[in-house]
Design a protein that fits this description.
This protein is an alpha/beta fold and 268 residues long. It has a single domain, classed as 3-Layer(aba) Sandwich (Rossmann fold). The protein has helices spanning 7-26, 43-46, 66-73, 85-98, 135-145, 203-212, 233-237, 244-248, 250-253, and strands spanning 28-29, 56-60, 77-82, 102-106, 120-126, 146-157, 164-166, 171-173, 183-184, 197-198, 215-221, 241-242, 259-266. The strands form 4 sheets. It has a 7-stranded mixed sheet with strand order 4-3-2-5-6-13-11, with helices on both faces. The chain is globular, with a radius of gyration of 18 Å.
Length: 268
């Protein structure tokens, strides 16, 4: 694998390699449903993708490939790609555990030169786009590898997620929506702590970048969480993306969207 020498990419790669174990252990991610947002409904309820049976699907920044595994169970032919080799270690174990056929590739998701033009019917990523610095280049590559009328699903952090929540006052402290700050990772320690970044983009920027790359945006979702205060522990475990950390953030998540999902189709 020939990764870019760009220091931000190397920092993000090192960060996810370091965080992979704890992240996968502390977050519940379904292997039977596509997740779009913490504590929120997944594909089986939202029906953003629709029928994927027989379709070729590429998951960019797949992490441990839970969405690819779920889509394979729905009949799709999936390939998952991620920059973090340690995330893919978990992915391989899960693929074997679930007995599904999912190809896994350790590579930089910003450029997809390893795939031919029109190779996929669907490209999807949920919580991966915010770690890609040159998003326009990535979207143009997605456009290239998609077949005619192919579908791009962009599930990413909502721009409001860039701002701090005042738990005492129960409000979001938005100082400048039009210039959302970068999030500098604080979790990293030791030699790998090269300070990865999370990139937040406004709705206008995301929409314009998709259109510029040759996509027609068919829909936008800001998923609303389940009322976990009225759910049993068993019902909580059935949520596609959850766990104790996200449950502790419920008040914020029920007032301010954490994620935003764009459904875009190749238009030329």
């Amino acid at each position: 694998m020939n990764l870019s020498t760009d220091h931000i990419k190397r920092s993000i790669q090192a960060g996810w390699d370091e965080m992979a174990g704890n992240y996968q252990a502390e977050t519940h991610i379904s292997l039977d449903d596509v997740h779009y947002a913490p504590l929120c409904p997944g594909e089986r309820e939202l029906r953003i993708l629709g029928d994927v049976s027989g379709k070729a699907v590429l998951e960019v920044a797949c992490g441990a490939a839970q969405n690819s595994i779920a889509l394979a169970k729905m009949g799709a032919h999936c390939v998952g790609l991620d920059i973090s080799s340690r995330q893919l270690v978990v992915a391989r174990k899960l693929v074997e555990q679930e007995g599904v056929d999912v190809g896994l590739l350790n590579a930089d998701g910003e450029t997809l030169h390893m795939f031919r033009d029109g190779a996929f019917d669907v490209v999807i990523s949920c919580f991966g786009w915010e770690f890609i610095q040159d998003l326009e280049t990535c979207f143009r590559e997605c456009h290239r590898v998609l077949a005619k009328d192919g579908l791009l699903i962009v599930g990413t952090v909502h721009p409001m997620s860039a701002f701090e929540w005042d738990a005492d006052g129960r409000f979001l402290m938005v100082n400048d929506y039009f210039r959302p700050p970068y999030e500098v990772w604080q979790e990293l320690k030791g030699d790998s702590a090269r300070q990865g970044l999370t990139f937040f983009r406004t709705v206008e920027e995301m929409f314009a970048t998709l259109v510029s790359a040759g996509f027609h945006v068919e829909g936008i979702w800001e998923p609303y969480p389940y009322n976990i205060e009225e759910m049993t522990d068993e019902e909580k475990r059935a949520i596609p993306y959850g766990g104790p950390f996200w449950e502790s953030q419920y008040e914020r998540l029920s007032k301010v969207p954490f994620s935003i999902v764009y459904k875009a189709r190749k238009s030329d």
